[in-house]
Amino acid sequence: MIKNSAGFQKILRDPMLLITIILVIISLFVFIVLPLYEVMKQSLIDLNGNFTIKAYISAFKSSNLQAIKNTLFLGTVVGILATIVGYIFAYAETYIKMPGKKIFNLIALLPMISPPFAISLSIIYLFGSRGLITYSLLGIRDFNIYGLPGLILVQTLSFFPMAYLVLSGVLRTIDPSMEEASQNLGGSRWDTFSKVTFPLTKPAIANSFLLVFIKSIADFGNPTAIGGGFNTLAVQVYQQAIGNYNMAEAAALSMILVDISLFLYIISKYFLEGKSYVTVTGKTAKDRVLIADKHISLPIGFFCLFASIIIVALYALIPLGSFVKLWGVNYSFTLDHYKYVFSIGKKAIMDTTIFSAVAAPITGIIGMIIAYLIVRKRFIGRNFIDFTSVVGIAVPGTVIGIGYILAFNSPPIVLTGTAAIIIIAFIARTIPMGIKSAVNTLQQIDPSIEEAAQGLGANSFKVFTTITLPMIKPAFLGGLIYSFIKSMTSLSAVIFLISARFKLLTIMVLDQVEVGRYGTASAFSTVLIIIVYIAIIVMTKAVGLLGVSKDNIKLT
Amino acid sequence: MKESKNVILRNVTKEFKGHNNEGIVRAVDNISLTINPGEFVTLLGPSGCGKTTTLRMIAGFETPTSGDIILGDENINNLPPNKRDIAMVFQSYALFPHYNVYENIAYGLRIHKMDPKLIDQKVSNIIDLVGLKGLEKRNPSQLSGGQQQRVALARALVMEPGVLLFDEPLSNLDAKLRVYMRKEIRKIQKELGLTSIYVTHDQAEAMSLSDRVIIMNKGKIEQIGTPQEIYQQPATEFIADFIGAANFVDGIIKGIEGNYNIVEMLSNIVRVPIKGENKFKVGEKVRAVIRPEAINVGEEGKFSGRITLSTFMGSTQEYYVDVDKYSLFVEVSNPSARRIYEVGDNVKLDIQEESIHLIKLS
User: What is this structure's pTM?
Assistant: First the structure.
């Protein structure tokens, strides 16, 4: 308390800072805490507003129980597979001498910047009932990719980049001299890996598993597109809420989903991140001597090559499919899908792009401010900001979607059907990553640099604008780009929030997939990916004008 | 140049929450001190003694849990760091990586919206003073450690602060450069007459720079004095041990004759001149501080001993000599001109009795 009260006095002397803190706390409360509270309330009351746990009882009836089991099973399998693939890519990047590493890295990151079900679409092209491989090449008539196997494949390919990022971050910071010490003491390469490197990365492996698990169970697009009869919780929530208008049961299922997710997230954040053996100093003592031994580099190299070819092929299928009349039946060239996209779909393209373009800079700036407050300031409510601003990572989009309908449908705040609710949802969904990367960057910057500025007469606002912001520009750009991409490609939250007035690209794609018009879905997806690429280039240039070196930019 | 200010700390205490929010750690424990205008004062102590916390409270980065900090004639307890007429040189230099040397030094003046012409003039003067001419356009990353250190110093000096603070500014430099920079700092400080408070754990730095040294331990002030006072009349065993090397020998006051304490120690009687505040009664047990350079090893002397270790150090010969139940550390200067004794030799020790300092047994 002593430290807090002293810190509080300091804040009081700085009115601008005080106002900022209050605004941030109010926003987080209204747009994160309140919707979640509304979901919880909805799950615990009946139509007359009396307390009941009926919704939970029916949430555990057979069809829902199967969805819960399915979700957990899928999360576990995908978590393991994605972590293995991610580990191999990360290890190859940091330890192995091989050509084309940069390309492998880019390819590994491709699934991160694509619509959530792009890979599903490609897999359907290849292995669907009229699939290129199963139907046209092999002539199998009753092959069914829909369901668990398809989902595992698609989710593993979609989420391994995340595992790769977590693991390569840790592998890169391992001091090579520890491994050299192991070899110096007589350890073979395998001893060194199994007794030094691997144990050092164990917390990161667990962390990667949990994060992929959270992603997998929150995934809405892929289970809808390729899940077939394999029902998951996220889909079940949507069906109960929108299909059956059973808000109470949807809310109860949401609570179960969010509880699982939060539980794992808290384990990850508070038990695993602190456990890391690797001291992050921002630099390694010296460069690692890369492994050139063919017995090691060849198998790993070929694995990366194979995986990369699959990913590239899957992505190539999307534009290909958009120029084909009817996949599996008539492969002749057509522009019909694009005619549709640019006539009926035009509004969706415009709406999505404008909303994302509005959300991204707001997200970027607020994210930097919140990160600055979390890392550099001490005040009452800091822990609240720290937790709620980043907890969004662990809250599945469907739950946020339900929460927003419940919270902003009636006074005091009515936002349903407006563009604002969609933009706010974009911000709430994408800000945690921006904050996280800015927090990481800030923590590596010596706080005395900012103290020096303050000591020379700069107030909090001046310190932030002249010193902090220029130093964390790469994180700012990363947050900006991430926010734009994820807004363009978001589906699970906004599917609850769209109205007749506004259309979104991802939802158009999903509609097309559901009625089997894969060509149009591909055309929409292609347009989406092109917009995202253009936006990345534009934003990089724009922020570059502010003086950021391109080398510092990382997609997170 | 503006006038230098005095600094007064009155019953200042700083408490931190302990690890995992358990318990409270008192980093600074009720300290009071007065620093006069133009004075160079060093806060010296082992790590964790509270010296840096004290400095950061004066700068305003930490708020005292209780007590007052006065700058000039103003209580600055509630003044944020950017409103205090204080500049600080940081241990890590804390240079702004996105500004060049000139911009780093001009930063504070620009924040204060000074006339650009005047800024230019002031910055140029300081750049000359600290010897950075020609490096104005460089970025901090393109400078050597010593040059970065000068930029940090210049950035603080250009503000012409009422008080200049130094937080172990030389600890990242190599030994030779450290000695050189400390002479430079002292020279510039005297030239400008700046009130300076300097934190360090290096006793040589403290001795060579300061008008007065403040020894801190466990959040409290152990002693304040000139470098000579601190060295020759350490108030406690902790200080005697921390500043330079010292032998500690127990004794009993056998009598007081005029200005001398008659002390029995090492099975002998010595006459120790009475200095400073410490008064002893006859029969009281005391501890004698004997500096290694106050002992000579040779053929003559009151005390008999036997060499257990003999090391040639160039400018001195170091011995460990068993006397009574003690093993005394002895430094004999200019060994090249003297006889060197080997391990096992029986020798006589001559202790300069006027250099012996007595402290109370706590």
Answer: 0.77
